[in-house]
Amino acid sequence: MPADIKAKIKEVIQRNYNVKSFRLEIGVALDFKAGQFLSVTLNNDPKLKRYLSISSSPTEGSYLEFTKKLTQSDFSRMLDNLKIQDEVVIQYPFGKFVLDASAPKIAFLSGGIGITPIRSISKYVVDKNLGIDIVLIYSNRSLRDVVFKDDFDAMAKHYPLLKVAHVLSETEVGFKSTVGHINSEVIKNEIPDYQQRKFYLCGPPQMVEAMRKILAEDLNLPVEKIVTENFQGY
Ligand SMILES: Cc1cc2nc3c(=O)[nH]c(=O)nc-3n(C[C@H](O)[C@H](O)[C@H](O)COP(=O)(O)OP(=O)(O)OC[C@H]3O[C@@H](n4cnc5c(N)ncnc54)[C@H](O)[C@@H]3O)c2cc1C
After folding, report:
1. What is the pTM of this model?
2. Is the CB of residue 231 below 6 angstroms from any atom belonging to ligand 1?
3. In angstroms, rounded to a whole number, what is the distance separating the alpha carbons of residues 198 and 58?
4. What is the pLDDT of residues 42-81, one digit of tens each?
């Protein structure tokens, strides 16, 4: 089990109406792979411990960033009240939702807050200019729920091998998106070469399982081409 590390809040960034990123200063060298997660404990209270993906990339310098959808829970409320220089306890790194750099083409399927580790991996690929071809299909209820839109727009501008396709439950005038949900037709349309790609799925467990079934059963992808991360708790 990784050791407890005392971390200080360095910066808080509002990402959308109910999502905030928290940047931590940990006082020791960073040691994680893009896509991994950490635990955050508030007030030294085990009931106030949550697992959260690291949304920053190891290429981004001296801080660790996590990004939380703020609910009505005690944890969310207390987190939202933290000030710069306040202390939290973290443990890290955990998890195997990491890049297989031997795959020249990959695809991400994500919904809502499930974008966090995908933002980390994408930023890593772009900053390192790895030449890996990426398609992200990102599903949300509406445009206001999209997280890291500016970030992905900026990355796609710098790195032409990154394509982002938005799927929204409702029509949004002036915004290019597919209306509905991610299904096999959307995947075939947005990723015609899907058979050549390794897929990374992240989001609430129900969504991840639905995506996995589509890939494995409708599109006949072998299990070794599907990597998943379940956000237990949603
Ligand atoms: C690997 C991993 C990565 C995650 N990354 C992120 C992230 O980047 N951003 C983010 O916002 N969330 C992430 N989550 C989810 C996060 O850990 C919380 O569960 C979620 O944010 C809800 O917490 P809350 O305090 O807001 O609400 P709560 O009220 O605590 O949770 C809502 C409901 O989920 C239940 N619940 C809470 N935790 C768990 C659990 N571990 N297992 C089963 N049920 C649970 C509660 O009983 C409640 O009914 C991740 C989870 C995992 C496992």
Report:
1. 0.95
2. yes
3. 22
4. 999 999 999 999 999 999 988 999 999 999 999 999 999 9
Whether the CB of 72 sits within 6 Å of ligand 1:
no
Residue 200 CA to ligand 1 center (angstroms) comes to 20
> Can you tell me whether residue 163 is helix, strand or coil?
strand
Helix intervals (H) in the chain: 74-80, 116-127, 149-158, 184-190, 205-213
C-alpha distances in Å from residue 41, one per residue of 74, 92, 191: 12, 12, 39
Helix (H) or strand (E) holding 106: strand 105-111
Q: Are strands 37-41 and 49-53 parallel, antiparallel or unpaired?
A: antiparallel
Q: Which of 182, 163, 173 is nearest to 112 (CA)?
A: 182
**How many Å lie between the centroid of ligand 1 and the Cα of residue 128?**
31
23 close to ligand 1 (CB < 6 Angstrom)? no
Give the β-pairing of 198-203 and 226-230.
Answer: parallel
CB-based contact 113:229 (threshold 8 Å): no
- The three state secondary structure string of 27-57 is CCCCCCCCCCEEEEECCCCHHHEEEEEECCC
Domains of the chain by start residue, with CATH: 5-94 (2.40.30.10), 105-230 (3.40.50.80)
Q: Cα separation of 36 and 93, whole Å?
A: 6
Tell how far the Cα of 53 is from the centroid of ligand 1, in angstroms. Answer: 11
Question: pLDDT tens for residues 164-176?
Answer: 999 999 999 999 9
